[in-house]
């Protein structure tokens, strides 16, 4: 079917409309259909149904609220670029929550050029087909939705074998996104098989995995993948990689058209860029101008080969920024990019000539230090780098604190080949994270056994759901005035057949990235409500039971509906159920989340914000959300009463909660001194080892009529 190259422009300024018409029609040769109001836009969508490949939408229109036209256009499956005057934070959040392709501020220099480049890209996408290979239907659907937002045509395959058949039937496919973990043929095998077909040597293949990023990335690249992304990722990262790779292949294709072979075309393309190497998107990250993952793998290979000849050592350091996603979620991607640029410049400033600093993933950096004979010096250097990252810096007028977990491994002592060395450095990095983050850890052989265990956990986690290997423990919450139990928090444990009880921090992130969290979360909710009713059946007083709900559950299923259904089935009164949500959820897709929270409030269920203080909540959002309590994060409670900063923060959160008419709950209370400080500051409830450890349901019964805390 021929694609009509029409662009819908919803714009009430005659000046901008005429500038855009000139640019879109004269320079790009597309037809522009203008609508000066929401009413006009609706008419145009009806009259020209199916003919728009993109829409440019101004948010300030005489007859609509911000966002309404975006919704009208998106409902017709047309990719939207928001093109508007000044943006404030609320508008940015609103736009991002609607999955628009991008937003552009009209008066910025170069904004028209940028819009034209995007329209050109969207028109090309309209004829480009992408293959998504994943054996999880939810993941496939998510990729498809994202790609269709950018105008790509998408075909899906449920596994390796099906993918090969689809490729044979669709020669037009230019790009494949392939998950690593699939039953039968894994993603790397599939990539190898695809590359064996001559006609597919120029296809872009992007490998995806939820776990074990750097080792797998090396494996994927060796199998012939063009790039690799770690799940979870932000859509911007995915599209940045897709476009960089498609652009690179376009350059190669234009060279091969004039008779140059693929290998020499690659060299040619590199030479072409050599004047300004750092802007070559195939090898350099476009945000920080550092070498990207592809060039990093290449340089590490060269450093190791050289060291093998000269009997030298090479140190590899992997940096993972702690909780970086929160900065992106809360402050926006521009602030996130600012942080990355600053970190890149700090890391670059401390290396010697011949060392490599690379950005190898969304929040991952790497350093290659050749001739690293003195391991103590490497460790000292890495610790200095960790403390440099920790120094606060200003982004958009705010002071931000970023920390990194760093793992190091040395060639050839810790690993004799690329894959092994990366895997060891990564294992050490995870150990630094597990140990409390903001630290450097050098690889030690004993770590490997644990990391191999965790890798194999992934497939077992899928099976654990069917085999009912989960159980819940309950931790009491105590009222500060009466000292009595007021409620319990349900905490999940995975009872692994050989490894024993596994803590949630070791598998919940994995469950989230594997798309299993909704199934697990629904089980937790049902089991907690059932348990609450069982206690009641034994004649115990009613207790409010709290359940953690991960942000992914809000995205993947209708939480309010599941809650209503569970309450109806179990018979638990709504006011005896509380959902604990994360602070970062409040900052994502604000309107959608607020509406689910309102539905929950209408049912009568309570909602509290967990780990409060670790994100960057905006007060305006907080006051708009129907909430019941703020739970002060354990990291602050640990440091009270002695550390002044923590004491101040805790006091402020308690006051904030009270001024928003919410309860303040402190978690992780371990000492009497902490409890006394919290009481003095007016905290309403406490939870922590001081009053009760998480325990099995039968044990909890003994606490129910005891005074658990006595402050005065
Ligand atoms: N050091 C110290 N620790 C204390 C103290 N009091 C409580 N804790 C621990 O702090 C965590 C409190 O839960 P959370 O902040 O909601 O943090 C939870 C929650 O975010 C998540 N989680 C647990 N169960 C579920 C679940 O069913 N669904 C989801 N989505 N997440 C869950 O995993 C996190 C960790 O859970 P746990 O390992 O059970 O760890 C629990 C608890 O055992 C104390 O005085 N000192």
UniProtKB/TrEMBL annotation:
Q: For the Response regulatory domain, which residue ranges apply?
A: 6-121, 129-246
Superkingdom of the source species = Bacteria
Q: Which GO terms describe its biological process?
A: cellular response to nitric oxide; phosphorelay signal transduction system
Q: Which Pfam families match?
A: EAL (PF00563), GGDEF (PF00990), Response_reg (PF00072)
Positions of post-translational 4-aspartylphosphate modification: 58, 179
Every copy of the GGDEF domain together lies at 312-445
The membrane spanning regions, by residue number, are none
Official protein name in the record: Diguanylate cyclase
């Amino acid at each position: 079917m021929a694609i009509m190259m029409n662009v819908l422009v919803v714009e009430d300024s005659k000046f901008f409309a005429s500038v855009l018409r000139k640019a879109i029609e004269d320079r790009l040769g597309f037809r522009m259909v203008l609508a000066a109001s929401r009413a006009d836009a609706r008419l145009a969508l009806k009259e020209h149904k199916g003919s728009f490949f993109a829409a440019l939408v101004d948010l300030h229109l005489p007859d609509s609220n911000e966002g309404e036209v975006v919704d009208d256009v998106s409902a017709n499956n047309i990719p939207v670029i928001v093109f508007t005057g000044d943006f404030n934070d609320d508008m940015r959040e609103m736009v991002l929550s609607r999955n628009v392709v991008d937003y552009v501020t009209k008066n910025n220099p170069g904004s028209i050029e940028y819009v034209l480049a995007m329209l050109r890209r969207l028109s090309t996408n309209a004829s480009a087909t992408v293959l998504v290979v994943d054996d999880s239907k939810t993941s496939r659907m998510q990729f498809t939705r994202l790609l269709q937002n950018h105008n790509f045509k998408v075909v899906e395959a449920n596994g390796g074998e099906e993918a090969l058949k689809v490729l044979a039937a669709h020669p037009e496919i230019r790009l494949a996104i392939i998950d690593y973990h699939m039953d039968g043929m894994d993603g790397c095998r599939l990539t190898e098989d695809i590359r064996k077909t001559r006609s597919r040597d120029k296809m872009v293949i992007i490998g995806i995995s939820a776990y074990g990023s750097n080792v797998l990335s090396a494996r994927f690249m060796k199998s012939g993948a063009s790039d690799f992304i770690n799940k979870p990722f932000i859509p911007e990262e995915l599209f940045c990689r897709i476009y960089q790779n498609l652009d690179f292949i376009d350059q190669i294709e234009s060279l091969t058209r004039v008779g140059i072979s693929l290998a020499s075309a690659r060299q040619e393309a590199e030479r072409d860029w050599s004047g300004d190497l750092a802007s070559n998107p195939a090898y350099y990250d476009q945000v920080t101008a550092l070498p990207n993952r592809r060039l990093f793998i290449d340089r590490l290979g060269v450093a190791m080969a050289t060291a093998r000849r000269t009997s030298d050592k090479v140190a590899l350091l992997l940096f993972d920024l702690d909780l970086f996603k929160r900065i992106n979620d809360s402050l926006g991607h521009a602030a996130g990019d600012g942080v990355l640029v600053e970190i890149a410049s700090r890391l670059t400033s401390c290396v010697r000539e011949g060392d490599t600093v690379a950005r190898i993933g969304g929040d991952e950096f790497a350093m290659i230090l050749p001739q690293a004979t003195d391991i103590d010096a490497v460790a000292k250097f890495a610790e200095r780098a960790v403390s440099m990252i920790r120094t606060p810096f200003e982004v958009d007028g705010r002071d931000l604190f970023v920390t990194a977990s760093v793992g190091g491994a040395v060639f050839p002592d810790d690993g004799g080949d690329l894959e092994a060395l990366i895997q060891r450095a990564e294992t050490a990095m995870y150990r630094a994270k597990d140990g409390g983050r903001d630290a450097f850890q050098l690889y030690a052989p004993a770590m490997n056994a644990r990391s191999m265990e965790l890798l194999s956990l992934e497939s077992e986690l899928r099976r654990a759901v069917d085999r009912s290997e989960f159980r819940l423990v309950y931790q009491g919450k105590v009222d500060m005035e009466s000292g009595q139990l007021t409620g319990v928090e349900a905490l999940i444990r995975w009872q692994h057949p050989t490894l024993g009880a596994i803590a949630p921090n070791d598998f919940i992130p994995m469950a989230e990235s594997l798309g299993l969290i909704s199934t697990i979360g629904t089980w937790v909710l049902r089991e907690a409500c059932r348990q609450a009713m069982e206690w009641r059946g034994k004649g115990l007083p009613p207790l409010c039971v709290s359940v953690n709900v991960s942000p992914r559950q809000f995205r993947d299923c209708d939480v309010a509906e599941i809650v209503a259904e569970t309450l109806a089935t179990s018979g638990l009164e709504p006011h005896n159920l509380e959902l604990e949500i994360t602070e970062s959820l409040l900052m994502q897709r604000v309107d959608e989340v607020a509406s689910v929270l309102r539905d929950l409030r209408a049912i009568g269920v309570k909602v509290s914000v967990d780990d409060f203080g670790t994100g960057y909540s905006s007060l305006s959002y907080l006051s708009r959300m129907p909430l019941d309590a703020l739970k002060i994060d354990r990291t602050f409670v640990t440091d009270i009463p002695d550390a002044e900063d923590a004491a101040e923060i805790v006091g402020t959160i308690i006051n904030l909660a009270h001024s928003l008419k919410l309860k303040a709950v402190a978690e992780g209370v371990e000492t009497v001194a902490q409890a006394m400080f919290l009481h003095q500051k007016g905290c309403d409830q406490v939870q922590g080892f001081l009053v009760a450890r998480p325990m099995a349901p039968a044990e909890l019964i003994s606490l129910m009529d005891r005074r658990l805390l006595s402050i005065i």
